[in-house]
Write the C-alpha cells for this entry.
Amino acid sequence: MKKAKSNIDWTLILLFFILVGIGWINIYSTTTEGNGIFSFDTNYGKQLIWIGSAVLVLIFTMVINYRFYPAFSAPIYILFTIMLVLVFFIGETTKGATSWFGIGNIGIQPAEFAKYATCLLLARYIADNDCDLTKNKHLFVAVLIILLPMSFILLQNDMGSALPFLFLIFALYREGLKSWILISGFSAIILFISLVFLKEWIVVIILSAILAFFLWTLRKQKRIYVGVFLIYAVAIVYVFSIGTVYKRVLKDYQRARIEVLFGKIDDPKGIDYNVIQSKIAIGSGGLTGKGFRNGTQTTLNFVPEQSTDFIFCTIGEEWGFLGSVFVILLYALLIIRIFMRSEHQREPFVRIYGYCIACIFFAHFAINIGMTIGLMPVIGIPLPFISYGGSSLLAYTLMLFTFINLDAKTNHWT
Amino acid sequence: MKDSSRYQYRKWIILSLVLCVFIVYFIRLLFLQVFDDQWEIRAKGNALRYVCDYPPRGLIYDRNGELLVTNTISYDLMVVPRKVKLSDTLMSELCSILEISSEEFTRRFEKAKAYSPFVASIFDRQISDETHGYIEERLHRLQGFYLQPRTLRKYLTASAAHSLGYIGEVNYNDMEKDAYYAMGDYIGKIGIEKSYEKELRGIKGCQILLVDNLNREKGSFQNGLYDTAAVAGKSLWSSIDKGLQEYGEKLMQGKRGSIVAIEPSTGEILCLITSPSYNPSLLVGRERGKNYEKLHKDSLNKPLFNRALMAQYPPGSTFKLVNALIGQEEGVINKNTTYSCHMGFAYGNRVLGCHAHASPVDLVFSIQTSCNTYYCRVLKAILENKKKYKNTKEAYDAWYKKVKNLGFGHKFNSDLPYELKGFIPESGYYDHYYGKNRWKATTIISIAIGQGEIAATPIQLANLVAIIANKGYYFPPHLVKAIGHADSLHCLYKTKHNVGIQEAYFLPVIEGMEKAATSGTVRSAAVPGIRIAGKTGTAQNPHGKDHSILVCYAPVDNPKIAVSVIVENAGFGATWAGPIAGLMIEKYLNDSIARVELEKRIMDAVIY
C-alpha cells in the first residue's frame, strides 16, 4: 500500500471559519453588557475561549493518524455512552433537561459528543464487508447503535439533542436500507400531521379510499392483496394509537409547540411568544437588515435564547434577507460538499461517516432555522458552528475535522 | 471491498430532499423579510415608545394687552402598578394624604392595573399645591408613584367665560378627527380655546425611546435623530375690552339678557356679555366635573347658554331701521316721504296700533318716534312695488336678500362659538304656510315692525348698528384681533362686507336715531357730552313680559362703539336697556362713570 497523499479540502475549512466567525459576530451583537471583546464574563468573551479551544481540537484531530478513527470507534462510542449514563447521577439540570456536567464554571453536554461517537461506530459497522442492511439482523444492530444513545438522551428529557439521530436514517438508506422503511417513515409523518388537522375518522375514510384505489389497480395481481391489507391494517392501528401516544408521551408544552406550528393555537403572549418574536425579528430585517448591533428585537431582549437557539434571529434582523440567504447558502455548500466528497470516496467507512455527519448537520440546520421562521416546532437545538455554546462547537469541530482528516488521507486508498 | 455503486442512485434522492428544504427556507425568508412588511411595524411597536413633551398653551390677552388667561402648573399623581410594593403602611399613608378611603384606593389601583401593569395611569388628578409638596417629600417611600406636571388654565378675570371658553380632555371623536391628539391630551372645548385650538396648542414634542422586553427604557432611538422639540403655542390678543366686559357683566347682574358691543370700523367685539353667566375658573381644577354638573343642571338661569349668540328674539322696533334702509334702496320712499298715522295702521278689518304722536310723519321722525304705521306702509310699498316686481313673492325675495345682506338670518362664521342663525323666513316659508299667491303685504305686516316670524340674535342687532355707523358695510364680528404678536395684522376676518345700500340712505336714518336719543325714545340712553344715535325695541314675548331692547352707537361723527342691549322681561326698551347702553358707552368712551346714582340703580336692580 503506498503512502496516502495529503489532499486536504480547504473549502470545508474555509466554510468552518466563516461560520464560526459569523457566529461570534452575532453573539457579540446581541450582548449589550461588558466592555471590549475580551470581557470573559460575557457570552461573546466565553465564545472566544471556546473558539480557541475548537482550534486546538481541530489541530489535534487533523494530526492524528486517520486509521485511529475506525479502529477506536467502538471505545469512543462506549466512552460517551457511559458518560450519558453518568449524567443521570452527577449531571446538572437546566430547563428541565438533565444533560450537563458542570466542571467549574463550564458545562459539558455529552449528548453532542455522543452524536460524533454514533457516527463513527455506525460507519465502522456498516462499512464492514459482511454487513448488509437488507438483512434484518444487520439492520437491527445498526438501529441499536443509533437508538442506544438516543434513548438515554430522551430519558434526560432533551428532545432537541435526540431528534437529529433520526436523520441518520438517510445514511442507512444510502447504504441499502429497504426503500419501504423510508417511505413508511415519511407516511407516518404525513399521517401525524394530517391528524393534527383532521379528525381520526376522516383520516380513516381517506385511507380506505386509498386502499380501494390500490385494490382496483392491482386487481390482476391478487397475490399482493394480503400485503396491501396488512399495510392498511397497520396504518389504521397507527391512526388510532397515535392520539394516545401523542397525549401520553409528549409533554403539554411539546404538544402546544406542535399545535402552534400548525396554527391551532393563537396565543402571542404565551406559548406563541417565542415564535412570534422570532418572526418579527427576522421579518423586520427587510432586504438589507437594520445593521450591526441595531436590531431592536434582539438587543432589547424581545427574542429569547438569542445567542443560542435563536441566533438566526439576530442574523435575520441585522443583516436582512441578504445576510440570511448568505448563511443558508454557506450551510448548503457545507452539507452538499460533504455529501459529494463522501460519494467520491472509495473507502466505505469514510463515505458512510461523511453521510452521517452531513445528516446531523442538516438536521440541526433544518430544525433550528425552521423553528425561527415558523416552519418547525420550537425545539431547543443549536445552529452548528454559529450558536453560542462550548460543547456543541467542540463536538461539531470534531465531527467536521475528523471527516476532513479521513477525506484528505484516504482519497486514494485502493 | 464493499460494493458502493449498487445504491449510488440514492444520493440523488437524498440530495434532492435536502435541496428541497433549502429552497423552501429560501422562499419563506423571501416572503418573511422582503414581501411582508407587517413585521417591521410590529418590531417598532415592540421596541419604540413615544414620549410627549407638552408645550405651554398660548396665553390670551385683552385688546389692551391685559392678560386674561394664563397657564399654571398642577400635578397628577401617576402610578405604575407593577412597580408598587403594596403594603398597609403605604396604603394608609397615601389614603390620608389624598383623603380617600382604602376601598377607593383599592378601586383606583385595580383600575390602573387593569389598564396596564407597566404603563403609568393617573391615580389622582390635579393635586393641590399643599398636597403636592407633602407627597414630593415622601416620594422616595412611595415606590411606583410619581408626580406628572400638567399645565392648567388660569383665568385672571371672573368674566367673559363664554367667549374665552375652556379646555378639557379629548374624547374619542377628537382623536379620530385629528391624529395629533392622544389619550389624556387637552383640547379647547368651546370659545376662543376651541376656535383657535391650532394656534394655542403649539406643537407637541416627541421623543422616541427604546424599551426592552420588560418595558425598561434603554436610551433614545437612533440617538434622537427623529425626536422633535415642542413648539410653544401662540398667544392671542382678544378684541375684548376686559374693563368693559367686567363692567357690563356687573350692570347685567340680576337680569337675564345680553350686551354686545362692536367696534364698527373693524368688527372687533368689545364685549360679549350674556347673563347669567359663570366664573370661568369654575371649570378648571379638581372640582371641574362637579361645577360643570351644577351649571349644566341650572335650568332656570342656564348659565352655560350664551344668549349673546344663541338667544333668538323678535327684534321689535329696531327692525324698523332695516325697513327704512331697504325702502329707500328699493326707491319706494325717500327722505321726504310722509305718511299720516292716527293711532295705528288699518288693514282689512284689523288695526296694527301705534302710540300717540304728531302726524303726518316723515322718515326721520318715524325713527325718532318709532311710528308703527309708517313702517307698515313702507313694507306695503316695498312688497307692492308693481313697477319693479311682478308679484309680492318677487318683491319679498328682493327684500329677503337685502335683509340677509344686513347680517340677519345667517351665521357670521367667524371665530364665534356656537352662533345661531336667527330667523328670516324665505318666501317659500309663507308659500308653505298660506299657500302659493295666498299671501300679500298685509298678511305678513308684523315683520314691518320686527315682530311675527322674524328673530335675531343680540350680536346681529349690534352688527346692524355697526353697519349704520359705517354707512353701508361691516366686518364679521370676531373675538380675536391678533395672533402671535400684539401688533400682528394676522386677523382672519378682514373681509369687508358691503350691504348693498347707498351711503346717502343712511343719513336720514342716522338723523332719526340721533334725534331719538336727544328728544325721542332713546333719551334714557343719552350720555351728557356724547352724540349718540339709537333705536329702542320691545320684543313681544309669548312667555311673559316683553323683552327690552336698545341698539345704539356713539359718537355719531366718529363711531367707536356699537351696542345692542337686551334685557329679558324688562318691558319697554327705553326703561332698562337704554340706561345700560348709555352706561356702557360712557364707560368705554370716558373710561369713568359720572352718573353714579344711575349706575347703582341699574346694578342693584333684579329683574327675573
User: Anything to note?
Assistant: Residues 10-35 of chain B form the longest helix (26 residues).
